[in-house]
Write a structure and sequence with these properties.
Blueprint lengths: L6 H14 L3 H8 L3 H11 L5 H6 L9 E5 L6 H10 L1 E4 L4 H4 L8 E6 L3 E7 L5 E4 L8 E6 L1 E10 L1 H8 L9 E3 L3 H7 L1
Parallel strand pairs: 1-3
Antiparallel strand pairs: 1-8, 2-6, 3-4, 4-7, 5-6
Helix pairs in contact: 1-2
Length: 189
Protein backbone atom coordinates (compact mmCIF):
# COMPACT_ATOMS: atom_id res chain seq x y z
CA UNK A 1 0.00 0.00 0.00
CA UNK A 2 1.24 3.49 -0.84
CA UNK A 3 0.14 6.53 1.10
CA UNK A 4 0.99 10.07 0.06
CA UNK A 5 1.14 12.57 2.90
CA UNK A 6 2.14 16.25 3.15
CA UNK A 7 5.82 16.94 3.88
CA UNK A 8 5.02 18.17 7.40
CA UNK A 9 3.21 14.93 8.26
CA UNK A 10 5.99 12.80 6.74
CA UNK A 11 8.55 14.65 8.90
CA UNK A 12 6.42 14.09 12.00
CA UNK A 13 6.18 10.35 11.21
CA UNK A 14 9.98 10.18 10.72
CA UNK A 15 10.52 11.88 14.08
CA UNK A 16 8.22 9.44 15.82
CA UNK A 17 10.01 6.54 14.10
CA UNK A 18 13.34 7.91 15.42
CA UNK A 19 11.96 8.02 18.95
CA UNK A 20 10.34 4.59 18.87
CA UNK A 21 13.29 3.00 17.06
CA UNK A 22 11.02 1.28 14.53
CA UNK A 23 10.54 1.58 10.78
CA UNK A 24 8.40 4.20 9.11
CA UNK A 25 5.92 1.45 8.16
CA UNK A 26 5.63 0.23 11.72
CA UNK A 27 5.16 3.82 12.86
CA UNK A 28 2.33 4.39 10.40
CA UNK A 29 0.66 1.22 11.71
CA UNK A 30 0.87 2.63 15.21
CA UNK A 31 -0.63 5.89 14.02
CA UNK A 32 -3.73 4.19 12.68
CA UNK A 33 -4.36 2.21 15.85
CA UNK A 34 -5.63 3.33 19.24
CA UNK A 35 -2.02 3.15 20.49
CA UNK A 36 -1.28 6.57 18.99
CA UNK A 37 -2.84 8.43 21.87
CA UNK A 38 -0.84 6.39 24.39
CA UNK A 39 2.42 7.15 22.58
CA UNK A 40 1.67 10.88 22.34
CA UNK A 41 0.79 11.04 26.05
CA UNK A 42 3.97 9.16 26.98
CA UNK A 43 6.17 11.57 25.03
CA UNK A 44 4.36 14.66 26.29
CA UNK A 45 4.64 13.55 29.91
CA UNK A 46 8.15 12.14 29.67
CA UNK A 47 10.57 13.85 31.99
CA UNK A 48 14.29 13.34 31.93
CA UNK A 49 16.72 14.14 34.71
CA UNK A 50 18.10 16.91 32.53
CA UNK A 51 14.72 18.68 32.48
CA UNK A 52 15.52 20.03 35.92
CA UNK A 53 18.35 22.05 34.34
CA UNK A 54 15.78 23.99 32.32
CA UNK A 55 12.95 24.09 34.83
CA UNK A 56 15.07 24.99 37.87
CA UNK A 57 17.80 26.86 35.97
CA UNK A 58 20.78 25.96 38.12
CA UNK A 59 22.64 29.22 38.66
CA UNK A 60 26.38 29.61 39.08
CA UNK A 61 27.43 26.27 37.65
CA UNK A 62 30.01 28.07 35.52
CA UNK A 63 29.69 25.54 32.71
CA UNK A 64 28.16 25.94 29.32
CA UNK A 65 25.14 23.75 28.76
CA UNK A 66 24.04 21.77 25.73
CA UNK A 67 20.53 21.69 24.29
CA UNK A 68 18.87 19.76 21.50
CA UNK A 69 16.22 21.92 19.82
CA UNK A 70 13.75 20.20 17.51
CA UNK A 71 13.07 22.56 14.59
CA UNK A 72 9.52 21.17 14.50
CA UNK A 73 9.56 20.65 10.76
CA UNK A 74 6.64 18.30 11.37
CA UNK A 75 4.47 21.32 12.14
CA UNK A 76 5.89 24.15 10.04
CA UNK A 77 8.46 23.52 7.33
CA UNK A 78 8.93 27.28 6.92
CA UNK A 79 9.97 27.65 10.59
CA UNK A 80 12.49 24.82 10.21
CA UNK A 81 13.91 26.35 7.01
CA UNK A 82 14.24 29.79 8.62
CA UNK A 83 16.02 28.42 11.72
CA UNK A 84 18.52 26.37 9.72
CA UNK A 85 19.13 29.01 7.05
CA UNK A 86 19.62 31.85 9.55
CA UNK A 87 21.16 30.10 12.56
CA UNK A 88 18.29 30.83 14.92
CA UNK A 89 17.00 28.92 17.93
CA UNK A 90 13.30 29.69 18.34
CA UNK A 91 10.12 28.30 19.85
CA UNK A 92 6.50 29.37 19.82
CA UNK A 93 4.21 27.59 22.21
CA UNK A 94 4.14 27.54 26.00
CA UNK A 95 6.19 26.50 27.86
CA UNK A 96 8.80 25.93 25.14
CA UNK A 97 9.15 29.53 24.00
CA UNK A 98 10.21 30.45 27.56
CA UNK A 99 12.88 27.73 27.53
CA UNK A 100 14.69 29.70 24.82
CA UNK A 101 15.16 32.36 27.51
CA UNK A 102 17.23 29.84 29.51
CA UNK A 103 19.90 29.59 26.81
CA UNK A 104 22.90 31.50 28.11
CA UNK A 105 25.76 33.02 26.18
CA UNK A 106 28.07 30.22 25.04
CA UNK A 107 25.59 27.39 25.57
CA UNK A 108 25.61 25.00 22.61
CA UNK A 109 22.32 24.47 20.77
CA UNK A 110 21.99 21.54 18.37
CA UNK A 111 19.25 21.98 15.75
CA UNK A 112 17.49 18.64 15.22
CA UNK A 113 15.40 17.84 12.13
CA UNK A 114 12.92 14.97 12.40
CA UNK A 115 13.98 12.06 10.24
CA UNK A 116 17.49 13.42 9.59
CA UNK A 117 19.09 14.18 12.94
CA UNK A 118 21.24 17.09 14.12
CA UNK A 119 21.68 19.28 11.06
CA UNK A 120 23.41 22.31 12.61
CA UNK A 121 24.64 23.82 15.86
CA UNK A 122 25.80 27.10 17.32
CA UNK A 123 26.42 29.01 20.54
CA UNK A 124 23.65 30.87 22.30
CA UNK A 125 24.02 34.63 22.28
CA UNK A 126 22.29 34.94 25.64
CA UNK A 127 20.06 37.64 24.15
CA UNK A 128 16.49 36.42 23.70
CA UNK A 129 14.26 38.43 21.43
CA UNK A 130 10.53 38.13 20.88
CA UNK A 131 8.51 38.39 17.73
CA UNK A 132 5.74 36.73 15.81
CA UNK A 133 5.76 33.90 13.31
CA UNK A 134 6.48 35.42 9.88
CA UNK A 135 6.45 38.92 11.49
CA UNK A 136 2.64 38.69 11.54
CA UNK A 137 1.16 40.01 14.85
CA UNK A 138 -1.90 37.80 14.37
CA UNK A 139 0.34 34.71 14.59
CA UNK A 140 1.92 33.05 17.61
CA UNK A 141 4.49 34.96 19.64
CA UNK A 142 7.97 33.46 19.53
CA UNK A 143 11.14 33.71 21.57
CA UNK A 144 14.41 33.35 19.66
CA UNK A 145 18.16 33.74 19.83
CA UNK A 146 20.65 34.19 17.03
CA UNK A 147 23.31 31.49 17.28
CA UNK A 148 26.96 32.49 17.11
CA UNK A 149 29.69 30.41 15.43
CA UNK A 150 26.87 28.70 13.60
CA UNK A 151 27.70 25.58 11.60
CA UNK A 152 25.50 23.55 9.25
CA UNK A 153 26.70 19.95 9.17
CA UNK A 154 27.48 18.36 5.81
CA UNK A 155 26.20 15.04 7.16
CA UNK A 156 23.51 15.11 9.87
CA UNK A 157 24.09 13.16 13.08
CA UNK A 158 21.26 10.61 13.03
CA UNK A 159 19.04 9.79 16.00
CA UNK A 160 20.58 6.33 16.31
CA UNK A 161 24.08 7.81 16.54
CA UNK A 162 22.95 10.40 19.11
CA UNK A 163 21.48 7.60 21.25
CA UNK A 164 24.72 5.62 20.89
CA UNK A 165 26.93 8.60 21.79
CA UNK A 166 24.83 9.49 24.84
CA UNK A 167 24.00 5.92 25.85
CA UNK A 168 20.30 6.60 26.32
CA UNK A 169 16.98 7.16 24.63
CA UNK A 170 16.19 10.78 23.75
CA UNK A 171 12.63 12.15 23.39
CA UNK A 172 13.34 13.73 19.98
CA UNK A 173 9.76 14.91 19.46
CA UNK A 174 9.99 17.38 22.34
CA UNK A 175 10.82 20.93 21.35
CA UNK A 176 13.87 21.41 23.57
CA UNK A 177 15.80 19.12 25.84
CA UNK A 178 19.01 19.68 27.80
CA UNK A 179 21.85 17.22 27.20
CA UNK A 180 24.25 16.80 30.12
CA UNK A 181 26.62 14.81 27.88
CA UNK A 182 26.25 17.09 24.86
CA UNK A 183 30.01 17.53 24.63
CA UNK A 184 30.15 13.95 23.26
CA UNK A 185 28.08 15.10 20.29
CA UNK A 186 30.18 18.22 19.81
CA UNK A 187 33.39 16.16 19.93
CA UNK A 188 31.96 13.75 17.31
CA UNK A 189 31.23 16.35 14.65
Amino acid sequence: MTIRVPAELAAQIDGLADYLEISRNETVLKLITPELKKVENEIENLKTEEDEDIEDEIVGSGKNKFYLLNTNKAHYVSDHNRMVANGIAEAYSNPWKHYIDKIKEGDIVFLYENGRGIVAYGEGSGETKTGHRNNDPSQDECHYQKLRNYTVLKTPIKASEIRKLLGKKIPFLRTMIPLKDGKKILDRK
